[in-house]
């Protein structure tokens, strides 16, 4: 039987087309993979949560949305009426386990604790239980995506280096304590951030949205000292809280460095895959004057070539080697620090 198109049918089809064209395609990153959801243009953050619960089977209590410039949002939202249209251009990372994943975990736990053999009942002994709060925090406060540069030699080795930083016991402890959640930790191309006057070792973009680290030597033929890179990472993590290099920033940076060293139970060289990253002599990279705008720059001085900035002054390079230059810069910092401390003590005595 053939049905003719009536005016009423035409109107219904037109309305359906309008409804479809007015939808917003919102892409989230979940478990490192993009997920696209279709929502109505008038949808809100609460509607997005409901959509995630329905289509991805992630219940609201398990949902956490890491939204660029808005930070971490989780149900119940402080402002559930935020329009989804305002989020379309922002990077959104969805943190949370599906109902199936939670059930699988529960089943694994049940299987692990189930009795495996029969026999006489032995006296109960204290059991070592896993700290699930720590496990949950480590899953949330971490580097959610690691990305080496695919166009440089041996990107898989850079990935292992980034994994070592992410899994470093000291770094993990500091991330949990300060609640740092970084969507992307990536490798820096040395050629893009090297001049005759300076060498950028790290970058923090948008207060922890992306952290870049210089892993390789300038010639791409090797990797830099691990402890130097880890110190650079501590510096960039401090930029998640403080932008300018003021007293607040340096206090936090020093605190993070001490925490990382204290909680790192490893010692000596560590094998990563078939590669050995031995500690080696640590570089003196903290020349203070080379930090600009969330960047950690080694040797960033004034406009004159051959000058390395220090806190409050500069040391002429002349024909000295790089190690000698850094040593002189360190001595200059110590002298200025001592003078500043003496001035502070005099001021304190005067005030008393």
Structure notes:
This protein is 38% helix and 20% strand. The protein has helices at residues 7-21, 45-55, 99-113, 132-140, 155-167, 169-178, 226-238, 247-263, 322-351; strands at 23-30, 33-40, 64-67, 71-73, 92-95, 143-147, 182-187, 199-205, 210-213, 270-272, 275-277, 291-292, 295-298, 307-310, 313-316. The chain is globular. The protein has nine helices and 15 strands. The protein has a six-stranded mixed beta sheet, with helices on one face. The longest helix is centred in the last third of the chain and has 30 residues, at 322-351. It folds into two domains: 15-99, Ubiquitin-like (UB roll); 134-300, no CATH class. It is an alpha+beta fold. Helix 4 (132-140) crosses helix 6 (169-178), helix 6 (169-178) crosses helix 8 (247-263) and helix 7 (226-238) crosses helix 8. One of its GO terms (molecular function) is proteasome binding. Pfam families: WLM.
Q: Give the distance, in angstroms, between the N- and C-terminal Cα atoms.
A: 103 Å
Q: For the report, how would you describe the main beta sheet?
A: 6 strands, mixed
Instruction: Average the pLDDT over all residues and give the rounded result.
Output: 74
Are there runs of 5+ residues with pLDDT below 50, and where? 11-19, 268-293, 298-322
Number of strands: 15
Number of folding domains? 2
Order of helices and strands: HEEHEEEHHEHHEEEHHEEEEEEH
Q: Which secondary-structure class do the elements indicate? A: alpha+beta
- Rg from C-alpha positions? 27 Å
Q: Beta-sheet strand percentage?
A: 15-25%
Q: Roughly how much helix do the residues carry, as a percent range? A: 25-40%
> Can you list the strand order of the major beta sheet?
6-7-9-8-13-12
Characterize the overall form.
globular
Treating each run of at least 4 consecutive H or I residues as one helix, how many helices? 9
């Amino acid at each position: 039987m053939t049905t003719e198109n009536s005016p009423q049918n035409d109107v219904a089809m037109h309305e359906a087309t309008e409804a479809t064209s007015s939808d917003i395609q919102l892409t989230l990153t979940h478990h490192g993979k993009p997920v696209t959801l279709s929502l109505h243009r008038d949808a809100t953050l609460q509607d997005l949560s409901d959509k995630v619960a329905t289509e991805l089977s992630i219940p609201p209590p398990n949902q956490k949305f890491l939204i660029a410039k808005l930070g971490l949002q989780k149900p119940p939202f402080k402002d559930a009426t935020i329009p989804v249209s305002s989020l379309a251009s922002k990077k959104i990372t969805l943190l949370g386990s599906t109902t199936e994943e939670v059930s699988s975990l529960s089943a694994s736990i049940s299987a692990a604790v189930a009795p495996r053999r029969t026999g006489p009942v032995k006296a109960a002994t204290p059991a070592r239980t896993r700290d699930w709060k720590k496990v949950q925090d480590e899953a949330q406060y971490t580097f959610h995506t690691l990305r080496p540069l695919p166009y440089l030699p041996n990107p898989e080795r850079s990935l292992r280096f980034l994994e070592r930083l992410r899994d470093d016991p000291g770094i993990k402890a500091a991330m949990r304590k300060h609640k740092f959640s970084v969507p992307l930790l990536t490798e820096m191309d040395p050629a893009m951030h090297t001049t005759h006057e300076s060498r950028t070792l790290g970058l923090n973009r948008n207060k922890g949205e992306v952290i870049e680290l210089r892993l390789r030597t300038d010639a791409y033929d090797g990797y830099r000292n691990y402890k130097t890179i880890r110190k650079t990472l501590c510096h960039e993590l401090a930029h998640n809280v403080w932008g300018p290099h003021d007293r607040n920033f340096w206090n936090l940076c020093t605190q993070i460095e001490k925490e990382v060293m204290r909680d790192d139970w490893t010692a000596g060289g560590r094998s990563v895959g078939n590669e050995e990253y031995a500690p080696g002599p640590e570089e003196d990279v903290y020349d203070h004057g080379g930090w600009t705008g969330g960047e950690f720059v080694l040797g960033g001085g004034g406009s004159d070539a051959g000058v390395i900035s220090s806190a409050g002054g500069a040391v002429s390079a002349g024909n000295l080697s790089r190690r000698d230059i850094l040593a002189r810069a360190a001595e200059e910092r110590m002298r200025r620090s001592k003078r500043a401390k003496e001035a502070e003590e005099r001021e304190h005595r005067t005030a008393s």
